[in-house]
Amino acid sequence: MKHLLLPLLAALALPTAVNAERNFPEEIFPEEIYLACKSSSQLYPYLEVAIKPKKGQAIVYGIDSYEQRLSQSSGSFNIVGYELGTGNRYSLNINRFNGLFRLSLYNSATSDMRQNDYEFRKNGRGKCKKVSLEERAF
Questions:
Q1: Distance CA 35, CA 130 (A)
Q2: Rounded to two decimals, what is the model's pTM?
Q3: What is the pLDDT of residues 53-64, one digit of tens each?
């Protein structure tokens, strides 16, 4: 009986090993914010946005673009990028409090907002909502 009691007490008294590895996306990437945005733009009706506020980085899925830059204030995120096909600049301004956003496209040569019929369909307004990685399909 003594031979069983001593190892049992030792096992209870010593701390057990804890697995420190966690695979929850929120714990791996706590600084990233994922947004799903529905727009009134006829050419860009749905956007997904991944924002890393601490690093000043953003990725917009749904617009084929490059050189996306993030600037932020206490009230909004502003993402600026360039369309791949045309090289024209776009601005995506997202309100941090209510998720409302405005998508504006500018002619790269003049920096004027483009207003002809085709280009006007690209501009839009809408609302973003936070989504977690589990809600995404892949």
A1: 5
A2: 0.67
A3: 888 889 998 888
